[in-house]
Amino acid sequence: MKISARRVDTATILDVTGNIDMSNSPEVRKALLRELREKGVTRVALNLTAVAYIDSSGVASLVEGLKASRESGSRFVLFGLSDSAKEVLKISRLLKLFEVYDDETQAIAS
Amino acid sequence: MSSIAANQPRDMNKPSKLNRAFLLKLELRSHPNLLCVIRGALEPLMEMLGFSGEHNREIIRAVDEAVSNIMRHSYQSRPDQPIEIYCNRLERETSGETEKGVEILLFDCGPAVDTTKLPARPLDEIRPGGLGLHIIRGSMDTVEYKRAGRLNRLRLVKYARTSKGESGPKEETPL
């Protein structure tokens, strides 16, 4: 799994490549909290286009990112979710909590 | 790694009434980097057994979460402990029709699990963690834990269904 950050206007896009599971979800959590808490970015969009699978530890990292964004008054959005990623958020009853967009253009324009 | 389930009572070695030999057996260590290997092995097997699309993903998700729980809780994140996974074909008669399914057994050598301390957390709580068990229960038809001698055994069962618009099981190919 690889994760990298890039700037688009006032937002930070975090591009994730590979599956997110117990072996690497702390890296996702760390990257999200770095942007939202340490750097104080006002909008963070997580690009999951290249992520086929997310487990519950990955979902927990997303929830931590969401909580951090609420605490700091910033926005945290997701885009490019696979069917599997949508299903795990749905079964966890968390899908409606997140701002989810189909692609980067929508996520940035939101 | 010697087989940890080898010394089980006879009925443990014959998990289904069909008494068929398992279709697939995986022996692995409790290292999180091996989770992707398990997923990669199960996906084509479940497809072969007739689980497609969402049902295939549900099974893989349940097994992945179960193994993650073994690694994290039963073995306290020690990466060198043994885990065994057995997959078997199942059949059952319902309403005069034969349903085909899969039975997955997971064994580990960790301490006995106190099932009273394993409630899935309320889903209306927005906090990280505690979702794995809920995902397992929500994905499979049967989830059974049993302490078998010095082993933990988790039994997961799911049947392929055609009534939900999913593609049904393929014609069975003798293995």
Q: Say how many strands of chain A there are.
A: 5
Instruction: Give the fraction of residues assigned to helices of chain B.
Output: 25-40%
Contiguous helical run count of chain A: 4
Strand order of the largest sheet of chain B: 1-2-3-5-4
The H/E string of chain B reads HEHHEEHEE
The largest sheet of chain A is: 5 strands, mixed
Q: Separation of termini of chain B? A: 26 Å
Q: What can you tell me about this protein's structure?
A:
The complex is a heterodimer of chains A (110) and B (175). In chain A, 42% of the residues lie in helices and 27% in strands. With 110 residues, chain A is an alpha/beta fold. In chain A, α1 (25-38) packs parallel to α2 (56-72). Chain A starts with a strand and ends with a helix. Chain B is of the alpha+beta class. Chain B contains four helices and five strands. In chain B, α2 runs antiparallel to α3. The two termini of chain B are 26 Å apart. Mean pLDDT of chain B is 83; it is low at 9-19 and 163-175. At the A-B interface, α2 and α3 of A face α2, α3 and α4 of B.
Question: What is this entry, summarized?
Answer:
The complex is a heterodimer of chains A (110) and B (175). Chain A is of the alpha/beta class.
What descriptive keywords fit this protein?
heterodimer; A: 110 residues; alpha/beta; five-stranded mixed β-sheet; globular; B: alpha+beta; disordered C terminus
List the helices and strands and how they pair.
The complex is a heterodimer of chains A (110) and B (175).
Chain A: E1 2-8, E2 11-17, H1 25-38, E3 43-50, H2 56-72, E4 75-79, H3 83-91, E5 99-101, H4 104-109
Parallel strand pairs in A: 2-3, 3-4, 4-5
Antiparallel strand pairs in A: 1-2
Chain B: H1 10-13, E1 24-29, H2 35-48, H3 53-74, E2 82-94, E3 97-108, H4 132-139, E4 142-148, E5 151-159
Antiparallel strand pairs in B: 1-2, 2-3, 3-5, 4-5
Helix pairs in contact in B: 2-3, 3-4
